Amino acid sequence: MSLRVAIYHHAPELDFEAVIPVGQISALVGPSGSGKTSILRGIAGLLKTRHARISLANEDWDTQDLHRPTRERSIGMVPQQHALFPHLSVLGNVEMALGHLGRAEKRQRAQESLQLAQIAELANRRPQELSGGQRQRAALARAIARKPQLVLLDEPFSAIDRGMRKRLYLELRHLHQQLHNTVLLVTHDLDEAAQLASYLLLIDQGRLLQAGETTQVLTQPRCEQAARLLDIPNIFNARIIETAGQRQLQWGEHRLKISADISPACGKVKFAVLPQNPLLVKSDRPWGSHLENPVSALVRDIVTLGGEVVLWLQPLNMPETRLQVRLPERAIRRYPVISGSQVTVCLRAADIVLLED
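The chain above was modelled as a monomer; its predicted structure follows.
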């Protein structure tokens, strides 16, 4: 079973198709203006699109001949600004989602939802009396009150300070483990997606660039556009060459072995290297077969960020090229690295990611 989504629209321009696993937290990630919120509203039935095909677990919500209104879709939604009614208590806000129930059952279900969201003691407060984190919990309690199959979260943590955000991440994961529903989270924060979601959908300009398990998407971008959206700085041009029956990359004066298959026999190609993957080699360490693709380089710049050191390296005889390397600060103490010094890094074959056009 899955959530199947195909949305086509003008203003905003959407040409989006995806199959999203059920029972997991998935994240829809992209820059501002990429159509994330519009896709979420389309799934919820709040945006009347030019054309849509949406189904959850073989139940059609949108087809060519059908458009189920939001109230007939098994969804709960937390919008960006939480949209709590200021004149109602927290309990009253949650009860508003349960108008189809009798008074007693509505009260009981609302109290259960507040308990799950860990704000039962705030039931009688008004939204203006709550902190940002408490308002987020109240909106989440309202979203889960109807026991929906699908929970839609639109940038729910964007207005919350970093410390509280970490606590809410844990609470959301714990709540998901209890309810086992499908959660689709919209965010532009890659760290947030990595911590919360097991499945990631990367979009730009209303189109799906790549989807898959979160770790795979973050470490194996499929194209240059995806790599740039993932903030991978090391994107380079190379030529495919063949030596002794083996295809390699010619990068400047360096020949790089790779583990990925190369389909064209010759020609230009782009590749990416995550900055945490290059291996800095000590000058007195003997070479071994496990040290692949050694590249000599000059250290052009060094910046310390918290417990991490960022190096910008210029491979020898490639004056316009910069390779960014990120290392734990403790690791840099083992290497005589200063600006202007020469070092050797290994670009291991398994860490070279070929990019499609």
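The chain is about 25% helix and 35% strand.
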